[in-house]
Write a structure and sequence with these properties.
Distance between the termini: 31 Å
Radius of gyration: 22 Å
Largest sheet: 8 strands, mixed
Oligomer: single chain
Number of helices: 14
Strand content: 15-25%
Structural class: alpha/beta
CATH architecture of the domain at 112-251 and 326-436: 3-Layer(aba) Sandwich
CATH topology of the domain at 112-251 and 326-436: Rossmann fold
Shape: globular
CATH superfamily of the domain at 112-251 and 326-436: Alpha/Beta hydrolase fold, catalytic domain
């Protein structure tokens, strides 16, 4: 693993977020008249149309704060005493808070366009020799196809790149190329669109083509897109083998309104630790972009119901919120299905043993039981992004037997397999190959 330095993090955030209208505090926003760094109104009051967010390093843990925070004042702003010591300011960023409803949707789509340039919903055809892709322009008729569907904050290129990053992954791609007539992927926006909308786009794309059999490998929210497509929208008889890898079938605690603030902090720390190795999810860009939007809507430290409203205005998060009244997930899991294919799944209960993961204790009650209640994201087993129990919910029955080796590959209490590196593990690749019959 390759950990970013704080200087690298500041530079990466600057490069990634400036096109989204989020700039370092000493840089002018478009149309802004700069006066001593932060523009102020007459009378010395801060201009409340300009939002500021600060990223602090506190004893090696990265924490986002709302507003301009200095190292000397950061301790007084923290709650619960879970973090100790003076914080170092990694970077301070500012942005316009003048976001109307349509502008919020535009900002979400803009963030999606940065993360998934081929979206919002496009089927790609991969050259099996060069592993380069091109949009599918004409109807395809073939006996078989492998369809790859990526997860949140990701894209098809990252998913295929992850497979191409190891010798086992390259061997897997060669096997799929020899066993399927086509290798396809579906690029879809994951912040500004819900999985239902993505699935409708996918259904319309697949309606144009004819296959006798489709093997499907989906990661993270790609599993929700797949289930909505096959169980609600697909109208063509189709033989499928579906492998769900770390999929939030019952949502994820990371997207709950109560844990959104801490979830973004968690993603930022994971981005710092994994560095360039984290190719499936560009966590720093996603966390910074969502910080702007949520802060502009409510103020980042807002409590319910304002934070509930903020989540509701971000379709990609609202659709995966692990709450009891997530009506979208309830409709998927308990509504009548056009068809319910057989699924298999890869899941992990990640329990790191490396000292570099010490920050994880702040966000996971299952590991420490008490001290960090103000920073919690997960209260049970998870793979760093998705609750483990959520990965088998309903699609496999009420209480699936995880010892069923045909249906499940379960990395129980794993110190090495987590949400962003499933496809680097040879056991994962072998399990998928077996399920696809290759």
């Amino acid at each position: 693993m390759c950990a970013y330095t704080n200087q690298q993090i500041a530079g990466s955030l600057r490069d990634a977020l400036t096109p989204l209208g989020i700039v370092p505090i000493d840089q002018d926003l478009e149309g802004e008249v700069s006066i001593s760094g932060l523009r102020r109104r007459r009378g010395g009051r801060e201009d409340d149309s300009i939002g500021v967010i600060t990223l602090l390093d506190i004893d090696g843990v990265l924490i986002w704060e709302d507003g301009a925070v200095t190292s000397s004042t950061s301790s007084s702003r923290r709650r619960g005493g879970a973090l100790a010591g003076d914080g170092e300011v990694v970077t301070q960023l500012k942005f316009s808070k003048d976001l109307g409803e349509n502008q919020i949707a535009r900002k979400l789509a803009q963030l999606d366009g940065t993360l998934t340039p081929q979206g919002p919903g496009r089927l790609l055809d991969w050259n099996k020799k060069t592993w380069k892709s091109a949009p599918v322009a004409h109807p395809i008729t073939d006996k078989s196809a492998l369809l790859l569907i990526h997860g949140t904050f990701s894209n098809s290129e990252s998913l295929v790149g992850e497979l191409n990053s190891t010798e086992d992954g390259k061997a897997f791609l060669r096997k799929t190329a020899a066993n399927f007539d086509r290798i396809l992927s579906f690029d879809h926006f994951t912040v500004s669109r819900s999985p239902v909308v993505n699935a409708l786009d996918l259904a319309r794309e697949m309606e144009r083509h004819s296959f006798e059999r489709v093997g499907i490998v989906c990661h993270s929210r790609g599993g929700l897109v797949t289930r909505w497509w096959l169980e609600a929208f697909n109208r063509k008889p189709l033989a499928t083998d579906v492998v769900l890898v770390g999929c939030p079938l019952r949502g994820t605690s990371l997207a709950d309104p109560q844990s959104l603030r801490n979830g973004l902090n968690l993603l930022t720390n994971v981005g710092k630790l994994l560095g360039d190795a984290c190719t499936l999810i560009p966590l720093l860009t996603a966390a910074g972009g969502l910080m702007q939007i949520v802060t502009a809507i409510t103020g980042f430290a807002a409590k319910t119901p304002l934070i509930d409203a903020a989540i509701a205005m971000i379709p990609g998060l609202a659709s995966m919120s692990r709450t009891r009244n997530n009506f979208e997930l309830e409709a998927l899991n308990h509504g009548p299905a056009v068809a319910r294919p057989g699924y298999s799944a890869v899941l992990s209960d990640f329990q790191p043993d490396l000292v570099d993961w010490r920050f994880w204790r702040l966000f996971n009650l299952d590991r420490i039981k008490s001290a960090a209640a103000d920073h919690l994201v997960f209260e049970q087993a998870n793979d760093l992004v998705v609750d483990t129990a959520s990965m088998t919910y309903y699609a496999f029955g009420a209480e699936p037997l995880l010892t069923d080796k045909k249906s499940f590959l379960y990395f129980e209490k794993s110190a090495k397999v987590f949400h962003t590196n499933y496809f680097r593990d040879p056991d994962t690749l072998q399990f998928i190959a077996d399920r696809l019959g290759i």
